[in-house]
Design brief:
The protein is α+β, with helices and mostly antiparallel strands. Helices cover 72% and strands 7% of the residues. It folds into 2 domains: 16-68 and 173-316, no CATH class; 80-161, no CATH class. The two termini are 36 Å apart.
Length: 319
């Protein structure tokens, strides 16, 4: 009996030492003040990362919707050369637009409509009859049939040289550039948050290793594999990362769900249609919720990987 025990104790390398340590020694305490603090940090970082990603999705979706709406609308401006001929000129342009395939919902603004649009800047009751106010014609592009705007613009210039077509391309380009910039800023902030979290995990791992330094040194020198020691840390930190990721991700999802509900309430209020036109419904959609959940999982995996990496680097320095 004693000879078997002696042989078992002499197997200090590999799996035999691993089983003995697993049964007798708690290498990394799972419930400590430092562990709870790390869960709080991971929760906050996950929440911030999810909010940043959600804002990027909001901006991208809103910009795409704006571009889609703007690209479906055209504006024709007729500069009056002779006030007596302006109505006839408007009628000719309307007829040309109606005869052009792919253009629909053609609306010509009257003189009173033009004056009403200027009221926010000039005030009500101002006599504008002596001013040469351009006449506007709003045209929508049928998405089912693509209109050849180049040919239409040439025909418009031939028919009426004082008419100008505005396809809002300049606004679309500026809007796309602004949206891309904001999305890249959000991505940069997201990377900063993830980097800060990775550093926090690295310092927490070093602290846990400092608390178990004597055990790690003994295991290392008696032949325990580096992989076994690293896995012990990885399991604990992966568990902490999952816990913090679930808490932070759940809080972010609840915030997005609450914002979607509030946006529907605001839409019913005065001025809510303008808010809805600018920002949409604040709803992430299925894709957005999946991305937020994926961020929480990735942060948990990153937590385990960082702890494993730090342990391996520490053990390699003991060689």
């Amino acid at each position: 009996m004693s000879s078997r025990r002696t042989k078992r104790e002499q197997k200090v390398g590999g799996q035999s030492a691993s089983i003995s340590v697993r049964k007798r020694i708690d290498l990394v305490p799972s419930d400590t003040t430092a562990g709870r603090a790390l869960v709080t940090v991971i929760s906050i970082m996950t929440f911030l990362a999810a909010i940043t990603a959600g804002c990027a999705i909001f901006i991208s979706d809103a910009a795409s919707e704006w571009q889609s709406q703007i690209s479906r609308e055209l504006t024709i401006q007729i500069k009056p050369t002779d006030p007596k001929l302006i109505d006839d000129q408007v009628a000719k342009v309307v007829s040309l637009a109606q005869a052009t395939p792919g253009l629909s919902d053609i609306r010509a603004f009257s003189q009173k409509d033009s004056e009403k649009m200027l009221e926010p800047w000039l005030g009500a009751g101002v006599d504008l009859s002596e001013l040469s106010i351009p006449r506007m014609i709003a045209v929508k592009v049928d998405p089912a049939r693509r209109a050849d705007l180049k040919i239409f613009q040439e025909q418009l210039k031939t028919l009426l040289p004082n008419a100008q077509l505005d396809d809002h391309r300049q606004w679309i380009d500026r809007l796309a550039a602004m949206a891309r910039t904001l999305v890249w800023v959000a991505v940069f902030v997201l990377l900063l948050v993830i980097t800060a979290m990775a550093l926090a995990v690295a310092f927490a791992t070093r602290g846990a290793m400092a608390g178990s330094k004597h055990i790690i040194d003994v295991l290392h020198f008696v032949g325990a594999e580096d992989r076994f020691i690293a896995v012990q840390f990885q399991k604990i930190f992966l568990r902490l990362g999952l816990k913090g990721g679930v808490i932070g991700g759940a809080c972010a999802l609840l915030l997005f769900a609450a914002s979607a509900g509030l946006s529907q309430f605001w839409t019913l209020s005065p001025g809510g249609d303008q808010l809805d036109a600018l920002f949409g419904t604040f709803s992430l959609g299925v894709k957005g919720y999946m991305i937020v959940a994926l961020i929480a999982v990735l942060i948990a995996l990153l937590t385990g990987y960082m702890s494993r990496l730090v342990v391996f680097r520490h053990l390699s320095g003991l060689e």
